[in-house]
Amino acid sequence: VARGLLNVRRIQAVERKRSWAENRVASLLRPFLRFVPAAEHDATVDGFVHELRLRARIAKLKEYRRAGLANLSDADAYDSEKRRRREAAAAGLQHAQAQASAAAMAATGNSGGMVASGSRAQLPVDPVPA
């Protein structure tokens, strides 16, 4: 109790500030809290979290280099274009799904209301995009 192992509110407040991956690292290291002082444990967890952030940043910089970008202003433009394309693809997928749904309702003669039993048509299932 004196070491703060049962202080749930403090632990939850710290966990809310961290990302999912950072909380995963902290939860994996939590059993070691019993063997070292709390301050040393917190420093160790912070070190691992810092390493996680550095590795993510390095991966992002490598992605920029593979794309042929030489400076961070180009990287910002690259990120905004990538985000725009991803949103456009998601909007296109939603549009395609809406069209398929409308076509399915037209094929079954259903206008979105109740379906009479036995009148359900078997529709082909498209594979889920990766």
Automatic annotation (TrEMBL):
Top-level division of the source organism's lineage: Eukaryota
GO MF term set: chromatin binding; transcription coactivator activity
Region annotation (Disordered) ranges: 75-94, 102-130
GO biological process: chromatin remodeling; regulation of transcription by RNA polymerase II
GO cellular component, one term: nucleus
Protein name: Uncharacterized protein
